[in-house]
Specification:
seven-stranded mixed sheet; 12 strands; alpha+beta; 20% helix; three-stranded antiparallel sheet
Length: 181
């Protein structure tokens, strides 16, 4: 196994979602390199499956891409919150639905080359209508799409969000193109 050793980690900037560091690393040949490292607080996401087997999706503006995206409901972990609790909270906040039938689907690391972000992805069935609780600066539209529609959007390049792609394909693998209806 190759030996890597972190010699130093320096905080460059602290943000509300991420912290940016420069790591000084000793690499296997003995040289030192500086690597970027983004520390992320963690996130959770939910695949919400309605009674017809459609997935509840959210369309929202993403500044990094300078466009609207279609995604599964998701958000960052609050202090002391586990991923399942966060995914459950995000489901209700963003879609106005809740569920008492929530199962773990898959975990992903989004950008392993420079960031430790981990997203726990869950799925919910037997949705119960509740009330949407958007943040003051959050503007999104809830949409319902079949798994096959979403899969076509993925391969057409219309959905490029990694958590959403993984979630849709994992749900398809688990339940087929018609969901669980």
């Amino acid at each position: 196994m190759m030996e890597y050793k972190r010699l130093k980690r320096e905080l460059v900037a602290k943000g509300s979602i991420i912290d940016y560091y420069i790591d000084t690393m000793q690499i296997p040949n003995g040289n030192t390199e500086q690597w970027d490292f983004i520390k992320h607080k963690g996130a959770a996401a939910m695949v919400a499956i309605d009674q017809d087997g459609n997935l509840l999706m959210v369309r929202q503006y993403r500044n990094a891409l300078e466009r609207n995206t279609l995604e599964i409901p998701a958000g960052g972990l609050n202090p002391g919150e586990d991923m399942k609790t966060a995914a459950t909270r995000e489901l209700e906040e963003e879609t106005g639905y809740r569920s008492e039938h929530i199962e773990h689907l898959v975990d992903i690391n989004t950008t392993v080359a420079f960031c430790n972000e981990k997203i726990g992805i869950y799925y919910a069935t037997d949705l119960i209508e509740s009330k949407q609780h958007l943040d003051e600066n959050e503007f999104l539209k809830v949409e319902r799409h079949s798994i096959s529609e979403l899969e076509k959007m993925i391969y057409a390049g219309e959905i490029t969000d990694s958590k959403t792609i993984v979630a849709v394909l994992a749900i398809k693998d688990k339940f087929g193109t018609n969901g669980i209806a």
